[in-house]
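Obj.: predict assembly geometry.
Materials: sequence records (below).
Method: joint structure prediction, all chains together.
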Amino acid sequence: MISRTAPTPDLVQAALAGRRFRLVDSLLAGGLLLSLFSSLLVLITLLADTLRTAAPVFADRGLVFVTAPLSADPAKAGVLQGIQGSLALTLFVMLIGFPLGVSAAIYLEEYATDGGFTRFITANVRNLAGVPSVVYGILGLALFVNLAGGLTNGRTIVSGGLTLTVLVLPIMIITTSEALRSVPATVREASYGVGATKWETIRHHVLPIALPTILTGTVLTVARAFGESAPLLLAGALVTNFFQPSADASVVQLITDERYTALPLVVFNWARQPQEEFVQLTAAAVVVLLVLLVSVNATTILLRDRFEMKSLR
Amino acid sequence: MISRMPAQQLSVPVEGQVGTAPNEDEGILVARDLTVHYGSFPAIKDVSMAVQPNQITALIGPSGCGKSTMLRCFNRMNDLIDSAKVTGGLTYHGVDLYGPGVDPVQVRRHIGMVFQKPNPFPKSIYANIAFGAKIAGIRSGLDELVEESLTKAALWDEVKDKLHESANALSGGQQQRLCIARAIATSPDVVLMDEPASALDPIATLRIEELMTELKQEYTIIVVTHNMQQAARVSDRTAFFNVSISEDGHRTGRLVEFDDTTTIFTNPREKSTEDYITGRFG
Amino acid sequence: MGVGKLLMDPLLIDLRGDRGRQRRETLVRRTFLAAAVFSVAISVAIVVSLFGEAGAFLNKIDVSQFIANGWFPRRGRFQVMALVAHSAIITGVAISVAVPLGIGSAIYLSEYARSGTRRLLKPTLEILAGVPSVVLGVFALNFITPQLVKRLFSTAETSNLLAAGLGVGILIVPLVASISEDAMRAVPDSLRQAAYGLGAKPWHVSLRVVVPAALSGIVAAIILAISRAIGETMVVALAAGNAGILSVNPLEGGITLTGAIAALAIGSDQVAGDNAAFQSLFFVGLLLFVMTFGLNIVSERFVRRYRQRY
Ligand SMILES: Nc1ncnc2c1ncn2[C@@H]1O[C@H](COP(=O)(O)OP(=O)(O)OP(=O)(O)O)[C@@H](O)[C@H]1O
Ligand SMILES: [Mg+2]
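Observations (raw structure tokens):
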């Protein structure tokens, strides 16, 4: 406390210095930092434990594990069909979900006038994004596997791909909308000012500026689809150790006729096997899944950077 | 501050006092009782004025009196604002600009626009100029068009060696001249400018003003400005807008006086015009 | 009169614009509109597909079963209450892990971290958010259960609700953290300056000023996290087991709402068609949908509240 009597420099300095060590502040900061570090700790533990468990598989069998087909024999089992299925499913999401999501977002941000209809669609999209993924699986089962089974041929990769596409669509729309909203209005004005139509303005100016952000959102979305498994359980993916596409099937047949699975479901299936050997195999499959996930991210980031350079020109 | 003044002082009786200047019915652009609502409130009300070809017409008035709103009526930029509604008449060479079948996009090719803040596209200088022509389907002679437009905008010498570099690297004044070049590249008839020099330093401002004087040989120019000297220096005719505040606090702009610039600045008819140009408010 | 003038006036003809361009414009607009409307079609499809079969299920079985006799759909026993109880326990565990950790991380990132620390630690949460749930399921089953739960509680079963809850908790930490952090960053700096100006200490500012100001955002984060925890499937399907007997002991296993759907789906080759077991899948799905939908709407309310405030 500063006293009423004439303060000496010493007194003032002492008053301003306060306590050197503030217990409450330090404790709180430490505790908060600890909560943040616990996430890091979990992540490191998860990776370390997975790698440690998986190491013998890769040491014994190397990359054969990646190229070998599924099998009930732990010594032979590989993840080939899982990788094939996951890549094909991702392709579905990118080829259908991306254009559909971007189109819907363009409509909502650039065309729709701010009325009840627009607000309804926007609220609807937000709510869809919060629906649990397994519920999308039920939709996939009812709609793509059963109802439209004539077109999708039932439990095929088409059904799975469409289910995942529908699942990621709301997220795609939301991230694209945000990207479009961040494009300054002055750019649009400038374009209209020289007599461009709405679509010309969007195509030549708005989209090129928003594209890097849109693609960043797409990375996350595609990665999410890649790791998704619950909806596929319902949309007809197999959870089994025995299946082998016929060797002479064409690509079209592979997609429309054959049964399929995905890498996360291989993990799921192996994790449920009683034999001890499958614990290691499960970890190894997780490693492959994580490596591919990182690659999906990296590819899309590379793609984004290329677009970024292009739009500068 | 205008908002602190009693409404009485600001709301000027306008009926029958506007447009006593010659040829009020004739001109390249003629507004008749033009009113613009944003939502249910009028931002400008009953504006009648005629813009003469190859002249510079200045719109002046306190902030919020609707100068930009008026300007944006001329090339239907207000169509882009959902809540804006334009009523009354506006003709361009005798054709009703808001008539059925008139395409706002096409209007903007005849009546170009330059904005307050320089807003070049984040592309090359060349691409900025060529864009208007490209979307109009013009594929040949683009090089000539770029050179011609930049020359007219007094920018060619400064940028001719870096046409394919980003327009964002130019200075503010250069960017604004680029925007002018971009506007005239679509060979419009009228160029609208909304405070084109307000974001620029005095030297760059002077260059824009010189440029406007040169351009009026070929184009009709309507310019919004807050700078009295600028209006006095460059414009042939000046329109003074003022704002009145209704009881529920809504501001509505009206055209108070529209006359030759010399008359407005030396011998205004209205007291509020005189107050404004002598800097007594606004 | 009109026609003559139209033909005469080249300006008017020009101002009508290019027909082809206008047609293209309309076409593009309609395409985008169709894409936007498609999202509504998805919602309708979800609701229709759930309600149809769920209704058939309710017609077929005796609703009094919902509260007794366990969940054994293949034997015609549908104790939905067991599913709900197990889901609630797992959600409770998950939330008590994720809320302190998530909000603690958010306060640190928003109020304490310098940009360097931030750049180092924020990606941790982002990576964690990107880990597929099946991977966390394996982690819960093969690490959390043997290394943590069983060491602490020797009576714990191999499948247990506690491990599943911890796994789900880890999964939703990033969600809680990122929404809470957004809310705290939306608190205007002037509020902090004002508090410091009054001589407040850092802990005072973060806990007594920023957190209360961001409260509605934090509440939204918690509600959304609850919704996410209820809907999480793979962790639960792997770590919580398939026991259909109602159990409120977190050290025992138990099947949840999502777990029941997954279990029915895996065996659905046998139970397809219009038997009650297959249809119960839709009923449970509907229950899940209604619960999460309600929670999401409530959380949306809270988000809107803090958006409005600042
Ligand atoms: N997009 C809009 N939506 C709603 N109201 C608007 C919009 N644009 C302008 N207004 C309102 O219309 C009135 C006139 O605005 P305007 O921009 O035309 O004024 P101004 O004279 O150009 O002002 P300044 O000199 O500040 O540029 C103002 O009260 C403004 O708030
Ligand atoms: Mg203005």
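Conclusions so far: Residues 18-60 of chain C form one domain.
To do: check interface contacts against the pulldown list.
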